[in-house]
Amino acid sequence: MADLSTEFMGLRLPSPLVLASSALSNRVENLEAAEGHGAGAVVLRSLFEEQIEAAGTRLDEALARQSESNPEARTYFPPQRVGPHEYLALVQKARAALRIPVIASLNCCAPGSWTGYAREIEGAGAHALEVNLYSVEADPAISGDEIEKRYVEIVAGIHAAVKIPIAVKLSPYFTSLPHVANQLVAAGARGIVLFNRFLQPDISLERLAPHSVMNLSSPAEALLPLRWIGLLHGRVKADLAASTGVHDAAGALKQLLAGARVVQIASALVRNGVPYLGTVAAGIEEWMDRRGHSTLAEFQGTLSQREVADPGAFERAQYVHLILAQNI
Predict the structure, then answer these.
(1) Is 206 a member of any domain?
(2) Structurally, how many domains does the chain consist of?
(3) CA distance to 186, 194, 199, 201, 267, per residue, from 213 (Å)
(4) Maximum pairwise Cα distance, the chain
(5) Where does residue 245 fall: left (phi above 0), alpha (psi -120 to 50 degrees), or beta otherwise?
(6) Residues 6+ away with beta carbon under 8 Å from 36
């Protein structure tokens, strides 16, 4: 019988399949179903930096209103920072209900005192924290170097605030992704998650206005994280997690072969239901049994760039070869 257990950021997981941060991961019953059908860990829905800042703004406004009627009104409130208590409650409930690791998620774009909220998440029981660095930089005056330094500062600040392991979820839009990944590891990241998906605005021809759409991923999107996991494996001193585009056992196995320790899944579960995780896990086990593998460690990373016979398959050489072979 194949053993699907793995290790991610020092946490022992019974399976490499992880319920990704999504609409599914904001209800404890979904988390319990994921565990029951083979998830090795769960990532809770993200707590956004804007939510924390908005909560602080509401408190300041309330204090200002009260202070007009009573100059001592501010003493009625405790000195600690107030944030979205519902999120801390979700962490606590998930930790109490599950045996598998519970990974909280912070979605942030700038350094700030809100990083202290990470400590409260740790106190609520999270086993680890995923920091989703989601930011669309539209200001031409801001350089790529400034953006990277800001991200490093965010991770360093959170690392200083907590003792639990930190994974950083990145976008693919860096000139030198390996360099950025190594900087983040030096700042305290123990895991790198590849990749987050940006919400892409559309334009309504009827209303003549932009509007937002949220589309599920497709299996074709898995090729981008597959390439970078293959390139980063063995070159970055962090555990790698695949995210985006994994819809079946074959997709998960490819990411593991490239060097992923865990594979995050969301869209496939939104489409097929949380119990579909069991189908994916069964497919991985069947492939391992057929190939004679008893553990994941026997084949994880065996098809990374450092291990394959044709390293150029991960780089420009294969692109040139395919384009020239088209003969169109």
Answers:
(1) yes
(2) 1
(3) 36, 22, 7, 6, 15
(4) 80
(5) left
(6) none
> In DSSP terms, which residues pair with 12 in a beta bridge?
7
Runs of H (alpha helix) within 259-292: 267-272, 276-291
Q: Is 25 exposed, middle or buried (0-12, 13-18, 19+ CB in 10 A)?
A: buried
Confirm whether 188 is domain-assigned.
yes
d(Cα 309, Cα 288) in Å, to the nearest integer?
22
Strand extents, DSSP E, the chain: 6-8, 11-13, 17-19, 41-48, 102-108, 128-133, 166-170, 191-194, 201-204, 209-212, 239-242, 262-265
The residue whose two tokens read 């969301």 is 266
Dihedral sign from CA coordinates of 232, 238, 244, 247: positive
Tens-digit pLDDT string for the chain (328 aa): 899 999 999 999 999 999 999 999 999 999 999 999 999 999 999 898 766 665 544 434 443 444 444 333 333 333 333 347 899 999 999 999 999 999 999 987 777 756 778 999 999 999 999 999 877 788 899 999 999 999 999 999 999 999 999 999 999 999 999 999 999 999 999 999 999 987 788 999 999 998 887 789 999 999 999 999 999 999 999 999 999 999 999 999 999 999 999 999 999 999 999 999 999 999 999 999 999 999 999 999 999 998 887 777 777 655 555 555 666 5
Residue at token pair 């492939």: 287
Full domain range(s) for residue 102: 6-326
Domain CATH number, residue 72: 3.20.20.70
Question: HSE (CB half, 13 Å, CA atoms) of 187?
Answer: 23
pTM: 0.86
- Nearest 5°: phi and psi at 3? -100, 115
Q: Is residue 1 part of a domain?
A: no
CA distance 15 to 17: 5
Half-sphere exposure of 3 (CA within 13 A, CB side): 10
Q: Is the preceding omega at residue 198 within 30 degrees of 0, hence cis? A: no
Q: Which two tokens stand for residue 12?
A: 């022992």
Residue 225 lies in a domain: yes
